[in-house]
Design goal:
It is built from 5 helices and 2 strands. It has a two-stranded parallel sheet with strand order 1-2. Helix 3 packs across helix 4. The radius of gyration is 25 Å and the shape is elongated. It has helices spanning 3-6, 13-22, 30-40, 44-53, 92-99; strands spanning 27-28, 57-58.
Length: 103
C-alpha cells in the first residue's frame, strides 16, 4: 500500500511539516517518519533529519522495559527473554545421525 493512498500529509517532508504546524505539534514519532520514508523510498533518517531542520523534536522509539527479579540470574542465561536452556537430552539424535545411517 502506498502512503499517498493513506493521507495527503505523508506525501512529502514539507507536507508533513505543514501538517504538524497546523496541528500545533512540536514533535513527531519514528512511525510517522518511517511511513513518509517508505512513500518517498528514502531512508528514515533522511526524513528525521529533514523534519529536525524545520525545528520539530524527535520522540524516538520506545524501548520495552525489562525488569529482573531477585531470583533471576545476573547473567540472564536461564531466565527471562533471550535465555538459553542448558538441557536438551542425551544427544542420541546426533550420534545416530552420524553413525546410524546405512550406506
Amino acid at each position: 500500500m502506498d502512503t499517498q493512498d493513506l493521507c495527503p500529509e505523508y506525501e512529502s517532508v514539507e507536507a508533513f511539516a505543514e501538517f504538524l504546524m497546523a496541528d500545533d505539534r512540536e514533535s513527531f514519532t519514528y512511525m510517522e517518519a518511517d511511513l513518509i520514508g517508505r512513500g518517498l523510498k528514502v531512508a528514515t533518517y533522511v526524513v528525521i533529519d529533514g523534519l529536525k531542520e524545520y525545528g520539530f523534536g524527535y520522540e524516538g522509539r520506545a524501548s520495552e522495559k525489562r525488569v529482573r527479579g531477585y531470583r533471576t540470574s545476573s547473567l540472564d542465561r536461564w531466565y527471562g527473554p533471550g535465555s538459553m536452556k542448558s538441557h536438551g537430552g542425551s544427544g542420541h539424535e546426533q550420534i545416530t545421525g552420524f553413525a546410524g545411517q546405512k550406506g
